[in-house]
C-alpha cells in the first residue's frame, strides 16, 4: 500500500505596493531566504521614477511561514493592497488599482551608483554582484524564476526595475542585481541559460571573471 501524499498547501495571492525608499532593498528575495517559502511574481511594475513599486505575488509553503512573511512586509511599511486565499478575497483596497504603465527594455533603470553598491555590500556580506536583464517569457508566468534562484543557489536578488503585465499574454522584463559568491553566481546564470530565457549581461559588473 503506497503512502498517502500530504496535501499541497493552498497558495496565497497578494498585491503589494513597495515605497520608493525600499526599492533598492531585496525585499522579495528576503521573503524566500528568511521564511523558506516560494514566491512567484505574477505581475510587476517598478521604475526608478515612481514613488511605489507594484507586485502581484503568489506565496506557497508552510502557512505559518507565509503569515510571518506578510507580517514582515507590514512592519516594513509595505502596503498590502489585496490578499486572497484559494481565490477568495480576504482583504481588498479597491481604490488602489494596479498601474497599467508598460516598460520596454530600453526604459529600465541605469546601473546602481557606487554608493548604493557599497551600502548593500556592507549589509549582505556578499561581495560579488552580477547585473543582468532578463525576459520572462509568457510561458514562464507560473514559474517562480527569481524565487528559485534564491532558494536553490543561496544568492540575493535585488529587483532594480520590472515590467510584467498582469494579462499573461505578453513577455515581461526584469532588471536584476544578483549578489553572492562567484560559484553561486555562475550556477545561477547557468540555471537561467538552461531555461532559455533571453538574457543581457552588464559586463561592467563582472569584475574580470568569465561566465
Description:
The protein has helices at residues 27-35, 63-76, 114-124, 145-153, 182-194, and strands at residues 12-19, 38-46, 52-60, 79-85, 88-92, 128-136, 156-164, 172-180, 199-201. By secondary structure, it is α+β, with helices and mostly antiparallel strands. It has 2 domains: 12-92, ACT domain (Alpha-Beta Plaits), CATH 3.30.70; 115-205, ACT domain (Alpha-Beta Plaits, 2-Layer Sandwich), CATH 3.30.70.260. It has a 9-stranded antiparallel beta sheet. A hairpin with a 7-residue loop joins strand 7 and strand 8. It is globular and about 40 Å long. It starts with 11 loop residues before the first strand and ends in a 10-residue tail after the last strand. The model is unreliable at 103-124 (pLDDT under 50).
Key terms:
NIL domain-containing protein; 9 strands; single chain; NIL_domain; Alpha-Beta Plaits; ACT-like_dom_sf; 211 residues
Brief account:
With about 210 residues, this protein is of the alpha+beta class.
Note the topology.
Blueprint: E1 12-19, H1 27-35, E2 38-46, E3 52-60, H2 63-76, E4 79-85, E5 88-92, H3 114-124, E6 128-136, H4 145-153, E7 156-164, E8 172-180, H5 182-194, E9 199-201
Antiparallel strand pairs: 1-3, 1-4, 2-3, 2-7, 4-5, 6-8, 6-9, 7-8
Helix pairs in contact: 1-2, 1-4, 4-5
The ordered H/E elements are EHEEHEEHEHEEHE
- CATH superfamily annotation of the largest domain: ACT domain
The CATH architecture term of the largest domain is: 2-Layer Sandwich
Instruction: Give unreliable regions as ranges.
Output: 103-124
Number of strands: 9
Q: Could you give the distance between the termini?
A: 48 Å
CATH class group of the largest domain: Alpha Beta
Class by alpha and beta content = alpha+beta
CATH fold descriptor of the largest domain: Alpha-Beta Plaits
Mind describing the biggest β-sheet? 9 strands, antiparallel
Helix content: 25-40%
Radius of gyration: 17 Å
Shape: globular
Q: In the residues, how many domains can be counted?
A: 2
* Binned strand content: 25-35%
Give, in spatial order, the strands making up the sheet with the most strands. 5-4-1-3-2-7-8-6-9
Output mean pLDDT. Answer: 81
Number of helices: 5
Amino acid at each position: 500500500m503506497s503512502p498517502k501524499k500530504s496535501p499541497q498547501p493552498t497558495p496565497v495571492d497578494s498585491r503589494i505596493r513597495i515605497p520608493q525608499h525600499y526599492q533598492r532593498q531585496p525585499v522579495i528575495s528576503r521573503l524566500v531566504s528568511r521564511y523558506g517559502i516560494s514566491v512567484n511574481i505574477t505581475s510587476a511594475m517598478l521604475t526608478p521614477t515612481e514613488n511605489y513599486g507594484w507586485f502581484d505575488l503568489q506565496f506557497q509553503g508552510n502557512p505559518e511561514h507565509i503569515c510571518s512573511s506578510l507580517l514582515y512586509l507590514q512592519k516594513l511599511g509595505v502596503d498590502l493592497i489585496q490578499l486572497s486565499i484559494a481565490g477568495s478575497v480576504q482583504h481588498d483596497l479597491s481604490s488602489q488599482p494596479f498601474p497599467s504603465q508598460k516598460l520596454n527594455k530600453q526604459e529600465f533603470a541605469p546601473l546602481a551608483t557606487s554608493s548604493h553598491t557599497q551600502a548593500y555590500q556592507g549589509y549582505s556580506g556578499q561581495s560579488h554582484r552580477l547585473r543582468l536583464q532578463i525576459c520572462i517569457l509568457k510561458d514562464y508566468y507560473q514559474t517562480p524564476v527569481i524565487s528559485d534562484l534564491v532558494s536553490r543557489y543561496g544568492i540575493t536578488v535585488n529587483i532594480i526595475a520590472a515590467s510584467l503585465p498582469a494579462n499573461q499574454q505578453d513577455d515581461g522584463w526584469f532588471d536584476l542585481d544578483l549578489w553572492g559568491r562567484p560559484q553561486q553566481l555562475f550556477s545561477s546564470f547557468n540555471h537561467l541559460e538552461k531555461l532559455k530565457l533571453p538574457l543581457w549581461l552588464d559586463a561592467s559588473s563582472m569584475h574580470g571573471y568569465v561566465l
